[in-house]
């Protein structure tokens, strides 16, 4: 499942960087902000995508140090290659991106990014309105016109649907469990709707529901317009249908081959966990008997529990379609920028809202 999530991330990053490159003069510099970058799990992706500048930031000092260590190792290895490849310049910043204005911490405060990438982390920002605003400001304010804000996060609609269908304040299966800390399921706040997410038994920091219609309004204040917002399952189907990323699926071992090779254990222990894969293969077998060409005797899959866990995620992208000028303001007080002029497509419905209703879910 981790490999599958990584595949989604790689595909989304590759697709967005391609879109960015199409609109840049050949050879123009490509800069990326990796927000909540963790231990540097995406460093190799930035190298493969040949970005020129990278800023990584995370709240956890040890993760930032590990990330920087990996980067230095990468530089060192590259310098020993016969034909040394150019590696991007990178800065590493330890900061809480929900409470600090990152721009104040950049070596060059005028730095502009083509892409702000926030992978599996956006949900940490929604503890309060102020924190969400700060995180969004950090993601959007330094984007170049035409730049993108790309992320993966949990799909709150799906979470709320599952919560309301459950008997108590929690739901899940063998792979994941989500326990809400809010008092009831009918009145969930827009900010601070807190839950604990256990993935394969491990709990990370508490997370918060991200109400997407509100996000669209908040980012619109930075001239950002929604490009897409897709559950992982749809994103996967769409790319596979187009024939994109099949090789990468194999290389990343993003799916389990079913049936497994001899002496290989499947992730899930029971055969019920793979009945969908069995049915698919049986149907292909029937096609073959009816004279249809079919060679699929193995299929790549995830167990049912893993699919169920994965289907709570979504991937989203916003693009900066209007220039904005940021009014100077104290770091502790997040203030929206003033709009300047449309640069791409003004986005008919992208009206910023000053009113916020207490509960919307
Ligand atoms: C699930 S990890 C994702 C790491 C990386 N983006 C990836 O895709 O591998 C979430 C990361 O968000 C970081 N994080 C959580 N809250 C944060 C905050 N308020 N400011 C900055 N980073 C934060 C954590 O320290 C952790 O490294």
TrEMBL record:
One example GO MF annotation: RNA binding
Annotated region (Disordered), positions in chain: 328-361
EC category: transferase
Stored PROSITE patterns: RNA_CAP0_MT (PS51562)
MRNA cap 0 methyltransferase domain sequence ranges: 1-321
EC number(s) from the headed UniProt entry: 2.1.1.56
Biased composition (Polar residues): 351-361
Site (mRNA cap binding): 39, 45, 70, 123, 207, 313
GO CC aspect terms: nucleus
Keywords, sorted A to Z: Methyltransferase, mRNA capping, mRNA processing, Nucleus, RNA-binding, S-adenosyl-L-methionine, Transferase
The protein, known as: mRNA cap guanine-N(7) methyltransferase
Species of provenance: Ridgeia piscesae
Organism placement in taxonomy: Eukaryota, Metazoa, Spiralia, Lophotrochozoa, Annelida
